[in-house]
Amino acid sequence: VTRGMIRWAYSGIRPLYDDGASKAQEATRDYVLKLDHPEGGAPLVSVFGGKITTFRKLAESAMEKIAPFVPKLGQPWTATAKLPGGDFPYAEVEQRIAALGRTYPFLEARVLRRLFRAYGTDAEKILSGVTSAADMGQSFGPLSEREIDWLRDNEWVRSADDILWRRSKLGLHMTPDEQDALRNYMNS
Questions:
Q1: Is the pTM for the entire model greater than 0.85?
Q2: Residue 91, pLDDT score
Q3: Which of 175, 173, 150, 148 is nearest to 159 (CA)?
């Protein structure tokens, strides 16, 4: 491996809450929530730590912290809620990809597979109304204009890097020209 072969670098950092432990390896790995609510000001919940595997519990704990400031908040509900696009049994993945292939035979099988693997049943919403490959809009390598617009409208994507590196690692599979074209599209 040479420097010229490296396409991207990433460093993950996990902040730990200073709980007074004498060594970093003894610090809590659980999340810690701190609530600031200055007189007359909006409440601020700061989250320290946490893991992707505890995101629902963390979110409910954060909402619990601000509940006194939001009287109509309601009860926690995410423990049994499906994630967007995840409203199907895993055993049906291949069947559902095949069904997309029958509905959209003009799209490449690898495109439909990637869309379903990335969005689950929301892939059907992305493709709603598509009657030809041209309806997908401009191509940016593995991405289409239609998918990018979906990400902007439904998943709060604001920059090309949100798509290329934070939501996916598609930047690893795109040429510099494709990445630049995506950046230009996102900035237009």
A1: no
A2: 96
A3: 148
